[in-house]
Amino acid sequence: MKLNKETSIGIVIFIAIIIFVNLVSVSVFKRFDFSKGNIYSLSEASKEAVKNLEDRLVIKAYFSKNLPGEYADSRRFAKDILSEYQAYSKGKLRFEFIDPADEEELKKEAQKHQIFPASMRVVENDKFVVRKIYMGLVFLYRDKSESIPLIKNTQGLEYDVTKKIKKIASIGLKKIAFYSTEKQQMQGYPQQQKDTKFSTVRQNISESYELIKTDLKKAIDSGVETLVIAGLEDSLSNEQLYNVDQYKMSGGNILFLQDRINTDMRTQRATVMNTNIFDLLNHYGIHIKENLVTDAECGQVNVQQKRGMFNMMTPVSYPFFPLIHKFTSDNPIVKNIEQMQLVYASEIDTTNTKDLIFEELLSTSGNSGSVNKPRLNINVQTYMNKNLKSMLIDPPKVIAGIFSGTFKSYFASDNTHFEAIKQTDMGKILYVADSDFIKEGIGSQIQSNLDFVLNSVDYLASEGSLIEIRSRQTEYKPLKEISSGMKKAVRWLNILFPSLLLIIIGIFRYRKELQQRKIIGELYE
Fold it and tell me: What is the pTM of this model?
């Protein structure tokens, strides 16, 4: 079969176009992502992070080839996302996948970069066996290295990778100062005397910032972007209070994670917290009510109950553990957070803020309430076998927000501090009337709680790019609450509808067959 001249030219042009498109695609990358939140493509913050690299960055991905089924997608996802980083880096980033399985040199190289094999039980030949697998990343930039030892799941991988890139390529990290009440844990063991109640949040902040531990006994460095004050249990000295005040008067930002009520779940007792930090805050126009908020939308606690001869643990809805999943603010701190769990939170009084502007961040649901002093009853028995929605009918209670505007110094009229800065209209105070929600063994393992605190630090330190990608894949979609009558109707509909549908289909088929038989009978009569 011979081709005419026009057909031959058309084929040549088509091949040339294909070759041209492939050549262009090598240097030009574009992904069309139609998922909600564009979770399968890089954010602008991640693209900028690799575009701004000054030198070559090498990422070594130590991944076993034959991963167990539940982790098989991790390798493909990691390769896919690293390819996108490479495409936007303009040649500054390259990556390679390495399987150290049978080569001792590669195993030693991985261990040198803090990548160790994880032991996992998998089913092989109808029996459980333990396999050691590698799933880690190493970032090499100039003379520095960072690592992600184990990728447990793909959710949040972009945030982890971008965070490491920004950290390793940064000339100098921003400074964050952290202060909390320290207590001795064990007498006679000096190495265990430091309090670790905020160790998880400290560790996470230190991965993106230079974390400075302060005792507030010296003036806070002006280079500190944000001061975090968490879980105070005692009053500050006059010197410490002055340093906090003057840091604020210098335009500094402060994040307070501070309870107003001291609670003990074990004894189920609650008392008002006595610390002079509230004198300072009241002077600024920030008032925290001496109460504990309750919410019908809440978490549960296990209560031991006797059932016959046995003691059994029964889950009971406990309104002092409010679940927060209705965010009215467009602030980036809460924009991508779907749900949080608070623990013994108090209410912020928004009616008397003096010259301050208040932006609400967290509040309870429309079925709220509170317990107030002097009778701060937190006994779980009070709420057992109760309809919390009919019991708690108050409007939402505000438990976190941002204060900005004009702050007047607590020491403005103190003659012993004549050098004190008198007032400022710079800087912000972000207050959360709860610290338990981020403490070890209480709420620090809830990822959204941690995300909220890290978002708050990023916001106050003007690092909005990290907020953009931290919670892109988090999504909470609770079922809509319906009445008991509607539940019964839906249940019976699920039971009866399939049977009725089959009966109706059978009747139609039967009638159709009768009609066909009638037609055939008439043809042969």
Answer: 0.74
